[in-house]
């Protein structure tokens, strides 16, 4: 197995006014919070969105681990639907002192390039800013951050910056190159 250099960029917003919303796409695109913790559904979203960009860190999670994560206060999953079909999602996670991380964000491969991503990121970021309104006891959001890497889609960084996120850290690390896991083996070419 060979190693590859992976660049990881961390970006942030430090005020709700930093958000520069995208225009909503045409058609029947809706964004809905997945309010019932469902390990099956969350794993489906994770594997389907990340399958062609080598998301592998959660593939080994057990059902119990998924449930434990999803039931934590301040963890939310917002799903974009195109004409009733899941197109992508954004996962938010409350951290200490009013910090919210956009832990995962992306679209299933067949829904990319249709202006859904900018809209979903805008909506998810707005929900990160008002997260404490839905979770009594959480601190008011003071900062929203995320990271992206050179394995992510070619338009990821541009989308984050157009939504008002600013770069605050860059790291380059060697990683073992792994095949695209796909939502099932062989679903996407390497």
UniProtKB/TrEMBL annotation:
What name does UniProt use for this protein?
GNAT family N-acetyltransferase
InterPro entries annotated for this entry?
Answer: Acyl_CoA_acyltransferase, GNAT_dom
Alphabetically ordered keywords of this record:
Acyltransferase, Transferase
Q: Coiled-coil stretches, from where to where?
A: none
Q: Which residues form the N-acetyltransferase domain?
A: 29-190
Per the record, a Pfam family?
Acetyltransf_1
Please tell me the species this chain comes from: Streptomyces anandii
Q: What is its EC number?
A: 2.3.-.-
Listed PROSITE patterns: GNAT
Write one Gene Ontology MF term. Answer: acyltransferase activity
The enzyme's first-digit EC class, named in words, is transferase
